[in-house]
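For the sake of clarity, the format in which proteins appear in this thesis is described at this point. The fold follows as a row of integers, each naming the local backbone shape at the matching residue. One such record is shown here in full, so that the layout can be seen directly:
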Amino acid sequence: MSTMVTYGRGTAVVTSTGMQTEIGHIAAMIQEVEEEETPLQRKLDEVGRMLGIASLAICGLVFLIGILRPLFTGQTLTIHMITEFFMIAVSLAIAAVPEGLPAVVTICLALGMQEMVKRHALIRRLPAVETLGSATVICSDKTGTLTQNQMTVTQMSVLDHEYDLTGTGYSTRGEFKSESQSISVEKHPVLRQALWAGLLCTDAVLEKSDGDADYRMVGDPTEGSLVVAAAKAGYWREDQERRYPRVAELPFDSDRKRMTTIHALDDVADEDASPFRAGDAGYVAVVKGAPDIVLDHCTHAQGPEGPIALTEELRERILKSNAGMASQALRVLGVAYRPLKVIPAELTPVEVEVNLIFIGLVGMIDPARPEVIPAIQKARGAGLRTVMVTGDYAATAQAIANQIGVLRPGGRVVSGREIEAMSDAELEQAIEHVDVFARVAPNHKVRIVQALRNRGHVAAMTGDGVNDAPALKRADIGIAMGITGTDVSKQTADMVLTDDNYVSIVSAIEQGRIIYSNIRKFVYFLLSCNMAEIAIIFIATLLGWPVPLTAIQLLWLNLLSDGAPALALGLEKGDPDIMTRPPRPPKEPVINREMVAGVAVQTVAIAGTVLWAYHRGGYYAAKTGQDATMMAQTMAFVTLVLSELFRAYTARSERYPLLKLGIFTNKWMQYAIGFSIILLLMVVFVPFFQPIFGTVPLDDWEEWLLILPLVLIPSVVAELQKLLLSYRPGRSRS
């Protein structure tokens, strides 16, 4: 179960069943990890609790003042007055609590998910969209995520000659160079033989691709690189197998660290310039494997004119060349051959893999994705640290980390063996300085994630295997590979990369930041509007004025301002500097001190303008002969609605001035404001709605001459507040 046989032959032996198997142990590790709320869920819970308590307290106070005032002024308290103030308090409570917030948050997250799919990130858990925006560390696999997962031969060495190969991945376009000069492989017989040997001793197949690439590889990536290298010289597997059909093989063995295939030479014409023909040999054994191991079984080396004795001096030169390639983070294979008159009766390594003739060395590397380097720089500019977590050797991992910019000056490379020797406390202390974890086992990933979380980080961890599932579940954001990942890893993860690319992680984090920023924007907008509504009723009640807004006006106002404009704020594209800011502190509340100050300023600005419009309403009523209370309430209602709608424009950014963003750059805001203004005008001017909402038509131009300047005051105040904040020390000007 959960095990895929991809290579070789063997016999399955059952040693354990159920929870005692390795898969069972993994299942137990997954079950031990408890589901936790995301940062957004925790913060919205805090906001809801705080708003609920504050709103109930204020609305209760308004109701209490309303019914006590007549007692202190000598008036008679009637049931009608109690009912009226109770309705006002209830309506005010409804208006004060942004009940549309959960719906807007959910819609915003869902739309963010759609945007992330375009960026090759499939979100499996909705709250994880925002959690990405909180990430401080990305723990990324190397192979396939930071690199192309396409092993590429870049160097070859035969005797005293070194060759370079151009081209990357599985593209067959490339050339061979010696001392920076392009060469023809046909004029270099030993190089040609090394290519043939590497091609024949593989099981990988190069197939035509339907995608952007010319070809795709079926089989082991290391073997695939040998097939591609031969194809660059014009040697194709089908042709060579027809000339040298495979008749026997000794599959790769991790103990032997080599593989051997045996090919018939009977069909090779006498005039064929095959380097494998040696006297009356009818077969050839081709060997590839670890260079030092293969070399130990060689007695000769291939020269341009044929085999030569493998002296100690020549052996040392080959080993030195191998070390040079390895120091460049290349994976190095040695290739050799042996002519055979007949196939041994007993096909064993002892019979076949002896008295070999060494051909050369093949150096290959899984090249870094070219787009990864700028993505890592972008992440670093955003305060995100990237940690490479790989099963490769430390030297290879370090070389790639240096190449793509993961390894910081003074950054450490730690191996799995060193992790084993560390206690959890020691790992926590070291984790801040480690940029590369090499030769890592799946259980090490769990410890790495836990150490980061204990240090206060929000960690994203990638994985593709069944064994990675516990680490993916333990991480704040578990990221599975969509192409190479197993079903278990995908089902455990919060997010699946459809292209297995590190760049998609950074793009998803950027979108997560935008989503959280948008959530803050409409929370800020809703709170400033709702607190202003409470202040208007509260102040009017304290002053003994008739209520400036009726219950149904408050409810209609709630619909106009809390709905469409708030949703439009959730569709903002984000501030231009969203990826140049450091990650927000994980414990920072949604409503921070800056927002509290902004809400207070907006509450004063909106409440002041509305109360002034209400106060002046009586004057215009006397001029027009209309009911003074209804005129005052209508002017207050229109002023409040328009000031909140115009305020929505300035709420599009907490930092950037509206003119810098562009007034009309968010088309959804135009639709939302236009729709809300139409609903407002219907209530004011359509006779059918006037008695329902207690409004009168505002037909005099003097009324609008007062209202229009007033409704702009809160927006102007908000823009001035941004300007003042931009001059604060340590904050860049926008």
